[in-house]
């Protein structure tokens, strides 16, 4: 998923200060002798478009930045490989990064994936073998260039983070190291499709956006008169992508392709993994640190789906400096001291971002020499009938009744526009859940890792979910989301071979919650809230479900870290507050964002509607970009199959007389046995529709 235009405004100022905050801690030599010196900047140039020829005759479009003198003094190159259009949609972001990074003695190449931007061919889906095969050729081509030393790195966030891992797993000899940010090692469990084996709204959201990614036309100023032929070919080949994804409701070969968790040993180069606590793509980071055997580092900040220099929520980092250190170490072979530092650096939040945004999240940086850390111990709290306690009480049975509209305070799996997408005060949903509170804490308690709930539960239906939310209840009575987990109970033994529940039979199930670093403050209570629903984050079960939970026997394990009085020194950018204030004066997405909720009415109907109209962006090429997103959710209490999800994504690009718009729409409904999904694609030149296609598919529910 992409980053909003507002973040590009923040990035512009942040990257302009690249390298300014590099401190002495970050520049010591590996052997403790004379310190490594930060490189002197070199003048750079940009190649607006370079064609990379592939063996099958396809040409991929690249934009390349490199030092002026690279022909006589070759440099390593760092690759970012995306479907998000180097020429326009990501032009500002790419330019800002390259202009801040490449003067320190590196080249930067931004390549459009086959069938996107100005690259030839057709893109048929996500993370396909063709993309990886092309990537091998790209890396080899870059390494052969006269201006290149032969050493290649890969970086990226989201899609670019995914394929950095995927390319590392192919082990091309020229690929020496990667930085992967806000990504995943498992495409089924940790992408915008299924959460704990339950269908998430973000499959629909991403499906509508991806439909436009597949078909936006190439720029005629690069490809010439064949642009329309290329556009029509992309439109004709556009698949019913949401229906395709819905035909794979379990962890099968479709999702295993491109999931490096199937064999971590295939990665042979150093890996730097970066995530954010507000992001939904964060659990990959501790898994990589635990399972990889190569040199590796991890950084978990307080931000969402953002680069560290953008860092919303803040505080942010001087990320240019960190990447220069990493690439100097692994592409130039010069020790910078980066690998002498702790394996994991994480931001321990003292409040959740939702409590304080847009201010920086209070907290401090902490560090672990290795991961998993021997200093973090599992502390067990029992879900007793009288509340949450470190002492087990007698077993008792408590019911969770059907609540189809429970979950509105935790609406977003992928929060993006933080003024409204961050989790609200959880109290309204807590009151409708089976909740367990601790007594007020007598001292601070810090956790770092993934909490895990073990619950003895039975269901009156063969298909059901269990949702576990872990909240901090502050002394003023408000409840703030710290972590949560979801499990489709038919997936209790794994996601490959789900099995129906035997109604009334108790099962002991384990629900993993999202990785977090959080301090529960003295005087607060820890709350664990259980429910069957979390709508509209996930689709309802086929029938109304009543769960029975055995308290006493059920428990939660928290990864408790000893509380320290000191703060680990990390180079937090001193300019960050000023950057945020300056960006706030610019137009940004929140100014054009509306969210309304109607209901529940007398019939129990709830309707949510969200619209985001990005500010018009004008590029240095003269092109203008417009983007509009429209989300719709509705459901009627007591009728899980009344749920309706709709999403529309529109992208317009105009340059002189070239004026194109593409629009993708998706809609999902269900019965107890089938999903019904409608999809459409529309393409316009000016106001004239030049192509449209729609699909209407019925797909059997697979214990979903």
Write the topology of this structure:
Layout: H1 5-16, E1 44-53, E2 59-67, E3 75-82, H2 91-101, E4 107-112, H3 129-144, E5 148-157, H4 159-170, E6 175-181, E7 194-195, E8 198-199, H5 201-215, H6 220-223, H7 227-237, H8 241-246, H9 253-256, E9 271-276, H10 284-291, E10 296-301, H11 319-331, E11 344-349, H12 353-356, E12 363-368, E13 377-384, E14 387-389, E15 396-400, H13 418-421, H14 427-431, E16 434-437, E17 445-449, E18 452-459, E19 465-473, E20 479-488, E21 507-512, E22 516-520, E23 525-531, E24 547-551, E25 555-561, H15 576-584, E26 593-598, E27 605-613, E28 617-618, E29 624-636, E30 639-655, E31 658-670, E32 674-685, E33 688-700
Parallel strand pairs: 3-4, 3-5, 5-6, 6-9, 9-10, 10-11
Antiparallel strand pairs: 1-2, 2-4, 7-8, 11-12, 13-14, 13-25, 15-24, 16-23, 17-22, 17-25, 18-21, 18-24, 18-25, 19-20, 19-23, 26-27, 27-29, 28-29, 29-30, 30-31, 31-32, 32-33
Helix pairs in contact: 1-2, 1-15
